[in-house]
Design goal:
Shape: globular
Largest sheet: none
Helix content: over 70%
Order of helices and strands: HHHHHH
Number of helices: 6
Strand content: under 5%
Distance between the termini: 21 Å
Number of domains: 1
Radius of gyration: 16 Å
Oligomer: single chain
Length: about 140
């Protein structure tokens, strides 16, 4: 059986920090994001789901990301801030950014949306890597 020494407090802290970053990111870029998705605030609110649901889903999925990043960091033997940042950067550049770009190129989404959302994932993974790298 695979043994692990995941610091769940670090995973929770990374989740909270990256979620807070995302809130600030999208608040700051809300007008640009709305223009990129070609929607008004009213149209976004009128999609027929509870307003709290995206936030709950985001927190749960960012926890999954932080946990998997912690497993990766542990597997490569990272024990410090710089290693955590490099692992987060590798995850962003190697997985999150290409996946975001691929998902947006086929439906011909605006390049601004790729930059906004890609920048968000880059920040999330850098923050998660930093927190997990520092806390172990």
């Amino acid at each position: 059986m695979f043994e692990t020494n995941i610091n769940y407090l670090a995973v929770l802290a990374a989740t909270a920090a990256s979620f807070a970053f995302g809130a600030g990111w999208y608040i700051a870029l809300s007008k640009a994001w709305l223009a990129a998705v070609e929607r008004t605030p009213e149209e976004v609110r009128a999609v027929g789901r509870p307003g709290w649901l995206p936030f709950v889903v985001a927190i749960v999925l960012e926890f999954v990301m932080a946990y998997m990043l912690a497993r990766t960091i542990e597997a490569v033997g990272v024990t410090d801030l710089s290693g955590g940042l490099l692992t987060g950067l590798a995850a962003a550049v190697g997985f999150a950014l290409p996946a975001t770009a691929i998902n947006y190129i086929y439906p011909a989404r605006k390049a601004a949306l790729t930059l906004i959302d890609g920048g968000h994932w880059l920040g999330v993974l850098l923050i998660q890597g930093a927190v997990i790298g520092l806390m172990g």
